[in-house]
Design goal:
Helices cover 42% and strands 19% of the residues. The protein is of the alpha/beta class. It binds pyridoxal-5'-phosphate. Pyridoxal-5'-phosphate (PLP) binds at residues 36, 38, 59, 81-82, 165, 206-208, 222-225.
Amino acid sequence: MSNETIKDNLDAIRKRIDKAATDAGRNPSEVKLVAVSKIKPAEAVIEAAASGADIFGENYIQEAIDKAEAVNNPNIAWHFIGHLQSNKAKFAVKVFDLIHSVDSLKLAKEISKQAKKIDKVQKILVQINISMEDSKSGISEEETETLIREISQLGNVSVQGLMTMPPYYNEPELVAPYFKRLREISDMIKTMNIENITMDELSMGMTGDFEPAIMEGSTYVRIGTAIFGSRY
Ligand SMILES: *Cc1c(COP(=O)(O)O)cnc(C)c1O
């Protein structure tokens, strides 16, 4: 994909984000764009950063480490959005400002342990699998409160909110109930006032469904294809 195209795509996406937020009666600045650069080369990230993107989402640890080093830009943030294995936590805490996909106490403990070693409090989101599809990572709604209370006891992680991946439909409207449910769970956790836990962020919405996600309160949309083109 040419550089012009990345810039044009970013401009078009930002416009759509701003319109969706405005239509929802929200302030567009509440919706942050995570440019999902997995499988795409460092050059694509450099181009996107030159066109104003400042958060990049990656799914694979080694790829992200190599790319972050190649890009070497202190003004951009890297977010981890893929499935994280506990034995990779020591690498993840070094690279990522936010890990969107924490789905077990075991993983949260390992992240906390590794973050402590480098004097960091790692920001995380808890991933919930609302549809309970086997193919998706994340904990069930029912497990959410218990897991968040347990994580709140850990010294070097800080929960900022929740993340979900709904089932895929061709009609974005059909995913809206899943986004709405994530917001309801977030609101419910908020009312519990659990120490050390904030629920300011909702990571939901991708290329095919970010507008309904913004309508339901998304604060991080994770968009790859519409910026960088197909990965296949
Ligand atoms: C790949 C990926 C995305 C981006 O998907 P697109 O459809 O290309 O926008 C978003 N979130 C997660 C968790 C992903 O793995």
